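Appendix B. Raw example, untouched.
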Amino acid sequence: MENSEMTYTHELKDGIALFHLEGSLLAEVDRTSIKNDFTEYLEQDVNKFLIDLSKLRHINSTGLGIFITLYTKVRGKGGEMVICSPSQNISNLLAITKLNSVFNIVDTELAGLERLQSI
């Protein structure tokens, strides 16, 4: 049976908070934990965030809402958030919802790190 929950890891890499998401981002319960981790970084004056979606298989409207919440939180502190490596399905969903015009989306983690380092 496929795991339907999202797990994630995070690390600080050259002043950039890097989050690796895996599984499915479908539930409200996922929001609290990742939001708290974002808040902790922001409180430490880290304001550049890269979200790696290469291992995220599914996302729904709740998941998109989480991205919007995180993006708003980061931008409210004068920071920047980049999303990298979305699957074709997630890319299509971001395009359908026009969130691809809101978020900075790049193909690879390296491209995301370079984009954030140039800011």
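End of appendix B.
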